[in-house]
Amino acid sequence: MMGISWLMRPSMSNDASLIRGMRITSVVCFLVPIGIAIWLSRLADPVPDFLSAISRKFFERDGFCFLFSVEKAASSARMAVYYQNRFTKPCNAKVFIGPTPKAFANLEGLPKFEFKVACGAGEFGKQSLAWSVPLRFQGKKILWDVAAQARFPSGRGELLRGRNGATVGDHLVGTGEEAVRAVSGLVLSAAHLHASTRSARVELILPDKLEPLHQKPADLQSQTIWKLGDPITPIVSMQS
Question: How much is the pTM?
Fold first, then answer.
């Protein structure tokens, strides 16, 4: 209807005012969506969110984002951490993952892992450690506690990627500390305060049909998958 107004010729002054108003409205309706699209495009992150292409859920510590995956490699498994720096300045990080302590549960054979990562501006990369999964845990879902530390020696700089991850603590919480936190949480709850009594956690499915070699975490492999200035290539999703 608004487009037709440009084809109409007014026969009276009242018609002229009406048609003029319709033409102005049609121009506004045409230009506003274009303006909004341009505005939104300028809000887009200058660096791709690679972690979201792997999994919708990932973790973060002060601008350093990461997620874990247990991958099968020949007859053994590899605990892998994928990471990305959200800022323009280099970051030095430590990432920790260990089996979640459970009362009366035998977790022997499930080790704690520590990764030390040095990543540049917006960098997306991967580190992994080989280890052997005990037979009784192969093919099962295991709950793990997650923590990280991140340091930006020159400051964080400018934000390159908008979406943040789930915040984690700076160390893995032991069974004793977990109990103390739980009691503290009850006391604070009675005082109508709130406190987190649980570590950040992730559930991972361990691969099966592996040789139980009783191998401790070893053979660290590091890979820079993408860095600032590289062409952007699609990342195939690995997890849901």
Answer: 0.73
Query: Does 239 map to a domain?
Result: no
**Backbone φ and ψ of 45, nearest 5°:** -65, 140
For the stretch 158-216, pLDDT in tens is: 999 989 999 999 999 875 454 434 434 434 344 344 334 467 999 999 999 998 777 78
- Looking at 12, 27, 43, which one is the last position of a domain? 43
For 64, the token pair is 């350093």
Tens-digit pLDDT profile for residues 21-72:
665 666 556 655 665 544 434 446 889 999 999 998 999 999 999 999 999 9
* Count of structural domains within the chain: 2
In a domain, 234, yes or no: no
Q: Rounded to a whole number, what is the largest CA-CA distance in the chain?
A: 93
> Whole domain around residue 64: which residue ranges?
50-226
The C-alpha atoms of residue 26 and residue 195 are separated, in whole angstroms, by: 55
Residues 98, 89: Cα–Cα separation, whole Å: 29
Count of Cβ atoms closer than 10 Å to residue 10 Cβ: 13
| Same domain membership, residue 129 and residue 54 | yes
Residues 112 and 142 in one domain: yes
φ/ψ of 31, rounded to 5, equals -85, -35
Q: Is the Cβ–Cβ distance between 234 and 48 less than 8 Å?
A: no
